[in-house]
Write a structure and sequence with these properties.
The chain has 198 residues and is of the alpha+beta class. Strand 2 (49-52) and strand 3 form a beta hairpin. The model has no long low-confidence stretch (mean pLDDT 90). The protein folds into two domains: 3-71, Winged helix-like DNA-binding domain superfamily/Winged helix DNA-binding domain (Arc Repressor Mutant, subunit A), CATH 1.10.10.10; 75-194, Beta Polymerase, domain 2, CATH 3.30.460. It contains nine helices and seven strands; from the N terminus they run αβααββαβαβαβαβαα. It has a four-stranded mixed beta sheet with strand order 4-7-6-5.
Length: 198
């Protein structure tokens, strides 16, 4: 995930409840003001934010969420795909505590239910913890029979903990937007309702 995306994430999490200062946002994220200024270009050009002096205001939450979703490269963050011979509930239950769920699993744990069935677990993991995850599932990782391409059901995503500490609803929505699985649309729609984005 890119630093510009983290700036968009921080702006979205403000929910437009207050005016923001570029310098304050830069300090909060540990970025330069020029990087924050760069992050404001597309949202400003599209009317998602309004810039005034050294500050700015979120005008169109939905539009900025879509800008982030379109620019997000979830595939670029994939470290490893595994086919684990377990149901998704068991995969989630046995996951290492250093990981952070996103997508359907995050929705389930955040809201206590799911709008539909799902068959994959997406999880953010620091690169130094990938081996720990592989060891955790070593006895149940399988290869597809007959040389076919396996239906991966555990996707490990690169987690740079200096960029974000948790997967917020906005972050989850953007990740769901970038998942090709049919059930992602059901979860995104349910999340729209919870985030009042209909």
């Amino acid at each position: 995930m890119h630093k510009i995306e983290m700036a968009w994430k921080a702006i979205l999490e403000s929910r437009g409840k207050c005016d923001l200062q570029q310098k304050t946002l830069a300090t909060k994220l540990g970025y330069s003001t020029s990087l924050v200024n760069s992050a404001l270009r597309i949202p400003r050009r599209t009317g998602a934010i309004q810039v005034f002096g050294r500050g700015f205001r979120l005008i169109d939450y939905r539009k900025l969420l879509l800008i982030w979703a379109v620019h997000r490269d979830l595939e670029g963050d994939v470290i490893k795909r595994l086919y684990v011979n377990l149901a998704v509930g068991r995969i989630e239950g046995e996951m290492i505590h250093e990981a952070a769920f996103t997508g359907c699993s995050r929705y389930k744990f955040l809201y206590g239910g799911t709008p539909s069935d799902y068959g994959k677990v997406y999880v953010y993991v620091a690169e130094e913890d990938v081996d720990k995850v592989e060891r955790r599932y070593a006895d149940v990782v399988r290869k597809a029979p007959g040389g076919r391409t396996p239906k991966y059901n555990l996707i490990l995503l690169r987690w740079d903990k200096t960029l974000f500490a948790e997967v917020t609803p906005e972050h989850m929505w953007v990740d769901l937007f970038n998942m090709e699985d049919w059930w992602a649309a059901d979860f995104r729609k349910a999340l729209d309702e919870r985030m009042t984005l209909q």
